[in-house]
Automatic annotation (TrEMBL):
Protein's recorded name: DeoR/GlpR family DNA-binding transcription regulator
Alphabetical UniProt keywords: DNA-binding, Transcription, Transcription regulation
Organism: Aquibacillus salsiterrae
Matches recorded under InterPro entries: Carb_Metab_HTH_regulators, DeoR-like_C, DeoR_HTH, NagB/RpiA_transferase-like, Tscrpt_reg_HTH_DeoR_CS, WH-like_DNA-bd_sf, WH_DNA-bd_sf
Domain HTH deoR-type: start-end pairs: 3-58
Gene Ontology MF: a single term: DNA-binding transcription factor activity
Length: 253
């Protein structure tokens, strides 16, 4: 079987099953796991799938649907953890911060030290993670629960945010487009993230390299509302140069 043929079949399998492991692909195509990993790396660069911890997941129609938390949790894990660790460095004692319902925000919650800060969140996962850290005051928005993202959204959540003002907001998104701004696949998620940005002094966008150049269904805001972007080292140099031209503070980890 030709390499190109094998790679196309891998894409077809991932899209059909939504996720698949390296070991299984190795057995199906009778090649080494290292060969499969090289295939997946190439296919991810071509934006045909996304690598996960131990395999790959489908990104078919990812701009039009909200992927279940369980799928997002295993996508680009290494990069998200590195981004989260960098974000934690920008949290100081006494800060009042927002963490959204992204998986990167959850990794950030896991990495936050137990020190006197206040965290406002619309994420069940983030709130549960922080509940064991007694020095951290956790405020949950409440609202309508989205089962796929484990996020509270809707009028109640938005009204709750209106009652507060914070120092820093740490937010992820589905896509960052240099001309069209940041966006989400779900309109309700976009609305609450826009609200989070409106009540903070400083906005940190946490996204891995796969989110650049993507325009999802629902626009959150333009790039002029962003203060900092934290991303991984795989972002291409042309994108970095264009972001720097916009006078945005880009941090690569």
């Amino acid at each position: 079987m030709l390499v190109a043929e094998r790679q196309q079949k891998i894409v077809d399998l991932v899209n059909e099953r939504k996720s698949i492991r390296v070991t299984e692909l190795s057995n199906i195509f009778s090649v080494t796991e290292e060969t499969i990993r090289r295939d997946l790396e190439k296919l991810e660069k071509e934006k045909q799938l996304a690598r996960s911890h131990g395999g790959a997941v489908s990104i078919q129609s990812k701009d039009d649907i909200e992927l279940p938390y369980s799928q997002r949790e295993v996508m680009n894990v290494k990069e998200k953890k590195e981004i989260a660790l960098e974000a934690v460095k920008h949290v100081e004692v006494g800060d009042k911060i927002i963490l959204d319902a992204s998986t990167t925000a959850w990794y950030m919650a896991k990495a936050l030290p137990n020190k006197p800060i206040t965290v406002l969140t619309n994420s069940i996962k983030v709130a549960m993670e922080l509940s064991a850290k007694k020095e951290i005051t956790v405020i949950s928005t409440g609202g309508v629960l989205l089962p796929d993202s484990l996020a509270y959204v809707g009028p109640l959540a938005e009204t709750a945010l209106d009652s507060y003002h914070v120092n820093k907001a740490f937010i992820s998104c589905k896509g960052l487009h240099l001309d069209r701004g940041i966006s989400e696949s779900d309109e309700q998620q976009a609305r609450i993230k826009k609200q989070m940005m409106d009540i903070t002094e400083s906005v940190y966008i946490m996204i891995d390299h796969s989110k650049f150049g993507v325009q999802a269904f629902s626009r959150i805001s333009g790039l002029e509302t962003i203060d900092h972007i934290i991303t991984d080292s795989k972002v291409d140099s042309i994108t970095v140069e264009k972001i720097m031209d916009r006078s945005l503070n880009l941090m690569k980890v």
